[in-house]
């Protein structure tokens, strides 16, 4: 059997799991919403960002990751997040980027915040990794290619986090992983492990926490 080039990340061992839990055991606080590059906070610590098409579940994932319900504003309306939202946890910034793709907003507004996102990804020196969220029900779609290509060009390592895993059957996982792996094979900035999550069920959250903690440790 051929080994997958983009396998699921292994579940953390007990020590790594506990280290990841401790990282997010304290308070994570909202810092600010940014609408222009001049408004970014000082680049004085490591930061990670979360990107994904509108309504993929970024806010829900951040809430599950930090254990703070309502920290990031979740909405059933695509395109509600129109700013770069910064959250702070000790020596780490977590950054929620505007959703891309369809958004329930004027075209000029969409263009403005998408340009801000491109500028951020291309020019933030302390950005260590981008976590690109992909809906497990749909896999990687054409609308995702723009940001994946941008991350390649910016030389920003990105890791795909599959969301809403509870919405599909376990028997559908192999086809999903194959589709995503094939799509990522052409992107040199893609980190060669996937993280499968469900914010609603808490699945994969310890793995994501441990991964983030590992970036800090490095």
TrEMBL record:
Pfam families: MMR_HSR1
Positions of the EngB-type G domain: 44-218
CDD domains xrefs: YihA_EngB
Family: Belongs to the TRAFAC class TrmE-Era-EngA-EngB-Septin-like GTPase superfamily. EngB GTPase family.
HAMAP family: GTPase_EngB (MF_00321)
Known function: Necessary for normal cell division and for the maintenance of normal septation.
NCBIfam families: GTPase_YsxC
Name the record gives this protein: Probable GTP-binding protein EngB
Lineage, top ranks: Bacteria, Pseudomonadati, Pseudomonadota, Alphaproteobacteria, Rhodobacterales
């Amino acid at each position: 059997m051929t080994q997958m080039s983009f396998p699921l990340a292994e579940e953390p061992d007990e020590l790594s799991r506990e280290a990841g839990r401790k990282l997010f055991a304290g308070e994570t606080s909202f810092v600010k919403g940014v609408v222009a590059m001049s408004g970014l906070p000082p680049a004085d610590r490591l930061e990670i960002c979360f990107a994904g098409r509108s309504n993929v579940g970024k806010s829900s994932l951040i809430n599950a990751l930090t254990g703070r319900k309502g920290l990031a504003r979740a909405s059933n309306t695509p395109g509600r997040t129109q700013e770069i939202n910064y959250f702070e946890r000790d020596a780490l910034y977590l950054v929620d980027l505007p959703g891309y793709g369809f958004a329930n907003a004027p075209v000029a507004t969409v263009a403005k915040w998408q340009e801000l996102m491109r500028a951020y990804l291309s020019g933030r020196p302390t950005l260590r990794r981008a976590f690109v969220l992909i809906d497990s029900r749909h896999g990687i779609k054409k609308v995702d290619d723009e940001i994946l290509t941008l991350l390649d060009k910016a030389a920003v390592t990105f890791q795909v986090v599959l969301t809403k895993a509870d919405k599909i059957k376990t028997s559908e996982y192999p086809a999903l992983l194959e589709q995503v792996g094939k799509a990522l094979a052409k992107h040199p900035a893609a980190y060669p492990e996937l993280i499968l999550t469900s914010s609603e069920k808490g699945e994969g959250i310890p793995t994501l926490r441990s991964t983030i903690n590992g970036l800090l440790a490095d």
